[in-house]
Structures are given as structure tokens and as C-alpha cells.
Amino acid sequence: MDFRQQLGPDLGDAWSAASGAPTVVLLDDDSDFALDTARRLEEAGFRAIAAFGPRHAMELAVREQPDVVVASLHVDGANGSLLLAMLGEAAPRTARVLVSAEQDFSVVASLAAPYSADAFVAKADAPKTLVPTIKALLDARVFARRPEIPEDLIRGLARSVARALEMRAGDSAEQVERVALWSRRLAEELSLPAREAFDVELGALLHDLGMIGIREAVLLKPGKLTEAEWVEIRRHPELGATLLRKIPALERALPVVLAHHERYDGHGYPHGLRGEQIPLAARIFALVDAYDVIVSDRPYRKGRTDAEARLELAANVGAQFDPAVHEAFARIDPAEWETLGRLAR
């Protein structure tokens, strides 16, 4: 029987629901090995979750912040070590174990991405060595915790998450990087301290994080959404905020992620905040995001000019946008704004 069929339709179901148990995400095409490994992990007191492909493993890593990810060197026709390398940025406190049928470590090292794993386990030895290896990694992880993570590392983590979201949220990496650069520049024009300007940039990179929790049938639906489907889509700010609270390094993005669809006149969502009830970071991003939507090409229309975008933004000041934020935007030289946008390409 196929591994997926044995585990049932819910891709996120855990074999063990033990409260507080360390979580292990397992990515392997070999159903016999995966099921046997899951059983051994349960017996050792772990909670094991199936990942059905590299993309699902990345989503699980962001959503669950697991203690460990165990991945095969080759999975779904891809190199599993590349996934582990990405997880090194997207979930820096998650231990990564690479598994391979090849027992010669030098051969595995030549095939694996550099610095992709914290440990290597040969499949033939896994029944005896995998659990002790995981326990040793978790014991060693304590000293790696830091009270303050440098901003460059936080930015790299946010970019990794944004790349993983690229197809799901519908925004290209270029678009996300562009609105992040613009958002930071607008924050600086408003004289925000450097730390707060960085938080605006971080929020822009992660604004659609909650799309991870929206069903693909809704996200990828080609036709018009039903009212019930729109209700589901409008849940993504709160879903994103819930995920961020599990990632301490990225919590500074919360104001933008939670409130980027609020409107200055109180007619936005999810909470109908009005005026200065909306965090300033979210008010900044809302204007930048609207500008980007106007000037960007879409499958159903060509993007409009900078001048046309500025006219539309001005027409919605006081309704959709904060007047003070718009005034700061208007002070920035359009040529500088255009140059900054090109840096994301």
C-alpha cells in the first residue's frame, strides 16, 4: 500500500498526539522505512509528522517549527539535501538529519548540498542510530539559542520563507522584495528609527504568510470565488499571525502580517480597525502594496504608469490610506522610487 494511503488524507496528521513531545517531520519516499521509522520515533517519545514532498515539508517546517526534520537524500526525484539547506534558514532552530541508502559518507557528501545537515544516518543503520542521533542533536541545540539574532540573519530567514510561499501566495519573489524595499524607504521618510523601519521591511516580506493555511482548491481556483471561499481567504492575516507567534525571530513582522488588509476608514479586515488603531507599519505597507498592484502586470490587464498609480492613491487618501503616510510617499522623488523598485529585479 502507498505510504500516503496508509497515513490517510490529512497531510498534517501526526502519528502521535503526545502533548509536549518533540516533533519530527519525516520526508521519505520509501513507505516501509518511513512507517518503521515513525513507529520507532513514537516508541522513543517523539511526535512524528509525514511530509509528502519537499514543498509540504517546508510548509510544515514554517507552521510547526519542528524540533527535527529527517529527509532522504533523494525524494520525489529531487535532492532532499537542498530542502534541508533551505530549512537551515527558514527554521534555524530545527535540527536536520540526512538519510541515504548509500553508506559511504564521502559519497553522500559529494552529492549533498554544503552545510545542509547536522547529521548523516545510513538507512541500514537507522534502526539503531537514528533515535540516538536525534537525541544528541537536541541536547546540543541548547547552547545554540541566542537572545538576539542579527538583522541580516532575520532578513535571510524571512526571504527563505517568502521564497517557499512564492507559488502559494501568488506573489513572485521579485514582487515581495520590491514591496519590502519600498516599505522600508517609506518608513524612513516618516522618520521611523532604524529598528522600526526594519520591522516594516520584515512585515512586507512576510505579509502573506497566512496563505500557508488556505486550501489550494481556493487559492488556485480559476473562476470567481464564492462568499464562503472569500471568508476563508480573509482568514489569512490571522493565520499568519498565529504562525509568527511560533517563530520568535520573526515576531517583529506581526503588525504588518495581521493588519495589512485593514483600511483607514475602518472598512478593512480582519478586525475593522480605523485610523491610528491600525499599526503604522501596516498603514505604510498598505499604501506600498496598493501602488505595486496598480503598476504591476496581471494576466488580465497591463500595469498602469507611475503617474496613474499616484492619482489613484491620492483619490483614496482618508478612506483606504493614512493621509500622513501618503504625504510622506508624495515627498519621495518618483525617480528614486523607480530606481529602488528596479533593485529587486
Essential attributes:
345 residues; alpha/beta; Rossmann fold; Hypothetical protein af1432; 2 domains; 5-stranded parallel beta sheet; 7 strands; elongated; disordered N terminus
Brief account:
The chain has 17 helices and seven strands. The chain has helices spanning 3-7, 31-43, 54-64, 80-90, 105-111, 126-140, 151-169, 173-189, 194-205, 216-219, 227-233, 236-244, 254-259, 280-295, 306-315, 323-331, 334-342, and strands spanning 23-27, 47-50, 68-72, 74-75, 78-79, 95-100, 119-122.
Q: Could you state the oligomeric state of the chains shown?
A: single chain
Rg, Cα atoms, Å = 22 Å
Task: Write down how many β-strands occur, each being a DSSP E stretch of 2 or more residues.
Answer: 7
Count of alpha and pi helical runs: 17
Written as H for each helix and E for each strand, in order along the chain, the element string is HEHEHEEEHEHEHHHHHHHHHHHH
Q: Major beta sheet, specifics? A: 5 strands, parallel
Mean pLDDT: 82
- CATH class descriptor name of the largest domain: Mainly Alpha
* CATH domain topology of the largest domain: Hypothetical protein af1432
Name given to the CATH architecture of the largest domain: Orthogonal Bundle
Distance between the termini: 46 Å
- Fourth-tier CATH superfamily name of the largest domain: Hypothetical protein af1432
Number of domains: 2
The residue ranges in which pLDDT falls below 50 over 5 or more consecutive positions are 1-19, 142-147
Strand line-up in the sheet with most strands: 2-1-3-6-7
The helix content is 40-55%
* Overall shape: elongated
Alpha-beta content class: alpha/beta
- State which percent range the strand residues make up: 5-15%
